[in-house]
Amino acid sequence: MKRILIIGATGHVGRQVLSQLTAAGAHVRALSRNPDAAGLPPQVEVVRGDLTLPETLDRCLDGIDTVFLVCVAPPDAFAPALERIAKHTRHLVFLSAPLKTAHPLFQQPNPFRARAEQFERLIETSGLQWTFLRPGMLASNALGWWAPQIRAGDVVRWPYLAVPTAPIDERDIAAVAVRALCEDGHAGAEYVLTGPQSLRQFEQVATIGRTIGRALRIEEITPEEWRRELPEFVPPFAANMLLDAWAAAVGQPAFVTSTVSKITGMPPRTFRDWVTDNAAEFQ
Ligand SMILES: NC(=O)c1ccc[n+]([C@@H]2O[C@H](COP(=O)([O-])OP(=O)(O)OC[C@H]3O[C@@H](n4cnc5c(N)ncnc54)[C@H](OP(=O)(O)O)[C@@H]3O)[C@@H](O)[C@H]2O)c1
Questions:
Q1: End-to-end CA distance of the chain
Q2: What pLDDT does residue 180 have?
Q3: What's the pTM?
Q4: Which stretches in the chain have pLDDT values below 70?
Q5: Which of 146, 142, 165, 160 shows the shortest CA–CA distance to 221?
Q6: Which atom of ligand 1 is nearest to the CA of 77?
Q7: Are the CB atoms for 5 and 159 separated by under 8 Å?
Q8: According to the model, what pLDDT value does residue 89 have?
Q9: 67: which strand partners?
């Protein structure tokens, strides 16, 4: 059985990958910068490591065959970390983005995109076998975007409400990741992953309201108003990235793929399924 390390195991996607691998009885280890605060099940082996401190990675990678990698660390950290990964393991499943998909939502220049392209180039020349997962909008974005407003009251103020996306449940990304990590035959594959439906942002917020039984008032605001009202933790470049993507996607249906079904044999969960299972986050 392959021995698997999850880097990013405490995040939205990695936590689901870990949970599904553990349920399947896989031999799995989690990396975290702070194992004491990781909040992972007690039976999981959690090892302290930090992508920005490559010397911490050898112990995490000892005896590992395959790595699932989420990298939100600064770009400079990537090459030295990848070198360590390539020294110890054979196969890397990397959480990337739909960099090659010709839909305007995914094609606007921004620092996140440049960073992911740089990471992919390094992986492709690392000598590792690789699989790239390319999810579109994560359903879990709703936790940072709309949950704070819905917890605080009945009004949601948001720009570009008519723009559709196809939010994907992180459990479906994880289900594809588990196949890529555990089965042979995924080396060199690039999986563009979306949810099953094109839903306008307005419809997504309305789905949350209906599912949690609240009458929400959804108000369109301008990008300038949105910038002024954004929480401080959203850096301007992240706000610009989203505004540019939404502006470019006005009037276009969302890009929807059937990749989740093809790889897992199960249809992807709807946004309503995701809200039902995360309803407590909005209350
Ligand atoms: N949001 C979207 O719509 C979207 C769409 C496509 C692709 N993506 C990609 O998805 C990724 C984010 O995934 P996510 O939402 O699951 O992440 P997340 O919830 O933000 O979690 C980030 C994870 O990275 C770990 N981490 C942070 N800094 C680290 C470091 N220096 N060394 C080691 N681990 C570190 C954290 O672990 P500890 O704190 O425990 O160390 C945590 O588990 C990004 O690469 C993004 O580009 C997002």
A1: 42
A2: 98
A3: 0.98
A4: none
A5: 160
A6: 31
A7: no
A8: 98
A9: 5, 92
Would you state the pLDDT for residue 234? 83
Q: Are 68 and 128 in contact (CB under 8 A)?
A: no
Residue 221: its pLDDT value, please? 97
- CATH numbers and ranges of domains, the chain: 3-136+169-195+255-269 (3.40.50.720)
Residue to mutate (ligand 1; options 55, 72, 170; most atoms within 8 A of CB)? 72
- Residues with Cβ within 8 Å of 95's Cβ and at least 6 positions away in sequence, in order, are 8, 13, 68, 69, 70, 71, 133, 135, 173, 177
Which atom of ligand 1 is least distant from the CA of 35?
40
**Is the CB of 13 inside a 6 Å radius of any atom of ligand 1?**
yes
**Residue bearing the CA closest to ligand 1, atom 40:** 32
The single-letter code of the amino acid at 222 is T
Q: What is the pLDDT of residue 58?
A: 98
Max CA-CA distance within the chain?
Answer: 55
Q: Provide the pLDDT for residue 233.
A: 75
- pLDDT score recorded for residue 34: 98
263 φψ region: left (φ > 0), alpha (ψ -120 to 50), beta (else) = alpha
AA identity, residue 118? Q
List the strands of the sheet with 66-69, edge to edge: 45-48, 27-32, 3-7, 66-69, 91-95, 129-135, 190-193
pLDDT the model gives residue 36: 96
